[in-house]
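As a warm-up, study this chain.
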Amino acid sequence: MSGETLTTGTHLLVETDRRRLHHFQGDSLVRTYPVAVGKPSTPTPTGNYHVVYKMLNPGGVLGSRWMGLDIPGGNYGIHGTNNPDSIGRAVSNGCIRMHNHHVEELFPRVQIGTAVRIVRAENTPAASQSAGSSYVVQPGDTLWQLARRFGVPLSTLVELNGLADPDELYPGQVIVLP
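Now compare it with the structure written out below.
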């Protein structure tokens, strides 16, 4: 199987508040990794970006692999670390840190141009409320289906999650339930 076949449809989702990076192949979740993200004074920028540069063994604080992102106004990336105790914490200058063995596993599966979506659910109205639970969106889910499945009015899900467009759900998205 060629490298192109393996990476068709590959995209990454980073949830900064949960300190997780999700690797998707098409609509299928391949693996979720714990990560470190930016500290409050230098947060990891949210938005939709792409991998624009890859480097083997950059060393030092960057660990064993570097995948640079096209985030304006800085030199941000997904990389390994020489400080594994930082994983799971908000301590970086905005980059996304991974355990070296995890970034080494992910690195060959990510190509230049791979989409990277960075979200921070704590900025949604749901984060300021004490929600009962959450649900990770699966391929094919719609907000209408979730409302019926969990017996919640659609308008409540829209408001609780701060959804501008209830038709735009994506696999791996975390929906807060009342």
